[in-house]
Design brief:
Helix content: 25-40%
Strand content: 15-25%
CATH architecture of the largest domain: 3-Layer(bba) Sandwich
Order of helices and strands: EHEEHHEEHEEHEEHEEHEHEHHEEEEHH
CATH topology of the largest domain: FAD/NAD(P)-binding domain
Structural class: alpha/beta
Bound molecules: succinic acid
CATH superfamily of the largest domain: FAD/NAD(P)-binding domain
Number of domains: 2
Number of helices: 12
Number of strands: 17
């Protein structure tokens, strides 16, 4: 066996699983196609991560998740997140890994607001929370022996004896995953990494869409590999469009965090008229799907190319610069000063609420294959994800998958199916034609 557990992907979900497994004495190999281990969907998240509000209770968070999920949220998954999430944020992110979350003037964690939350319960690091979390996790990993990270390695196929073993009898037992074939993009060769257990933590698929908030690496390869191996995918039609990405001819769809609306920004037509009140009683803080659809409707009905997001009229310039330094600077690079002018915005693909179907421990329908984070579907998000649940879901399910694997470790080792797994055969494989 090359490693005890192979983790594909190095965002918060993969790191959370790796840390818990290694702390429990297992050897972990984590592969990422990126050049730097921290480059991931997590790294680009802006708004924040749910912690707990004053007078908050798990049932209040569950209610918000279910309301945003439009009747399709799986209640046990929401329950797990609400009960375990805040504790893991405190123990792992705040105390252990020491993520530099913002502290307010009272010396407490600064709580921000995002759409469809019934209270302020989200903690953040300025407007680059994902970067702060991911950097802290990756810097912490070397303190825990047993985690080996391979960068520039893109997983291309999950190893399932049913599909890859030369033994014809391997077709009959239930499908198991015994690792992955992984392409070393520097040396241009495919290696085989065998493992007792494999965890998919490959993030999302935004690059399938023309306009997306996702980074270039979000190409959906995890879903494709899992599907080819026989995993069940569900809810793939529940794609979430983020209402506010920067509209500029030279910008990729740069995210303007929902926390900008959480802190008081108002959506207006290009003529300067607020319009959200006519779509939902919560106005600009309605659930994300409602806001994205409302913007789309305004654009289609009136032929607007974009709508405006106005914070300048509601917040002091100095406060805007302090609260949203990264968004402020990025907009300035495109000639837009958000301390003075509204930002032109349009919706763009943001998050896949569906994915590889997993249970409450991250187990897929394939033996020895887990999926955690965006690539998975726990049912938590239903048809529309509540803001700032994605980093938390990765943290919680990464940890839960690791706990399950450790608890059942003897079974994984003793029942390992003795199928010969061939090296990757690349006869007929050609260099792709560059786009
Ligand atoms: C945002 O900052 O608006 C994104 C947060 C999220 O996707 O939960």
């Amino acid at each position: 066996m090359d490693t005890d557990v192979l983790i594909i992907g190095s965002g918060v979900a993969g790191c959370s699983a790796a840390l818990e497994l290694a702390k429990r004495g297992l050897q972990v190999t984590m592969v990422t196609k990126a050049d730097r281990p921290e480059e991931s969907n997590t790294y680009h998240a802006q708004g924040g991560i749910i912690y707990k509000g004053k007078q908050d209770r798990p049932e209040l968070l569950v209610r918000d998740i279910e309301e945003a999920g439009a009747g399709a949220t799986w209640p046990p998954a929401a329950q797990v997140l609400a009960e375990e999430g805040p504790h893991l944020v405190e123990e792992i992110l705040i105390k252990e890994v020491k993520v530099p979350f913002n502290i307010n003037e009272e010396g407490e964690l600064d709580l921000t607001e995002e759409a469809a939350h019934s209270m302020r319960r989200i903690i953040h690091s300025d407007d680059f929370t994902g970067k702060a979390i991911e950097t802290a996790l990756i810097q912490y990993i070397p303190h825990i022996p047993g985690i080996h990270i391979l960068t520039n390695h893109v997983a291309i196929d999950l190893i399932t004896p049913e599909h890859h073993s030369p033994d014809p009898l391997a077709t009959y037992p239930p499908t198991s995953c015994l690792g992955a074939y992984v392409f070393n993009t520097k040396e241009k060769k495919v290696i085989k990494i065998t493992a007792y257990v494999t965890i998919l933590a490959t993030g999302g698929m935004g690059q399938v869409f023309l306009h997306t908030t996702n980074p270039d690496g979000a190409t959906g390869d995890g879903y494709a590999m899992a599907y080819r191996a026989g995993a069940k995918l569900i809810n793939m039609e529940y794609t979430q469009f983020h209402p506010t990405t920067l509209f500029h001819k030279d910008a990729k769809r740069f995210l303007i965090s929902e926390s900008v609306r959480g802190e008081g920004a108002i959506l207006k037509t290009p003529k300067g008229e607020p319009f959200m009140e006519k779509y939902h009683p919560l106005g600009c803080l309605a659930p994300r799907d409602v806001v994205a659809r409302a913007i789309h409707e305004e654009m289609v009905e009136h032929g607007y190319k974009y709508v405006l997001l106005d914070l300048a009229s509601y917040m002091e310039p100095e406060r805007i610069r302090r609260r949203f330094p990264m968004i402020h600077e990025t907009c300035l690079n495109y000639g837009i000063d958000m301390t003075k002018d509204p930002i032109p915005v349009v919706p763009a693909f943001h998050f896949s609420c569906g994915g590889v179907k997993v249970d409450l421990w991250g187990k897929t329908n394939i033996n020895r294959l887990f999926a955690v984070g965006e690539v998975s579907c726990t049912g938590l998000h239903g048809a529309n994800r509540l803001a700032s649940t994605s980093l938390l879901e990765g943290l919680v399910w990464g940890n839960r998958a690791a706990r399950w694997i450790h608890q059942h470790w003897k079974e994984y080792v003793n029942e390992y199916p003795p199928h010969p797994i061939p090296e990757w055969i690349d006869t007929g494989v050609e260099e792709p034609i560059p786009p």
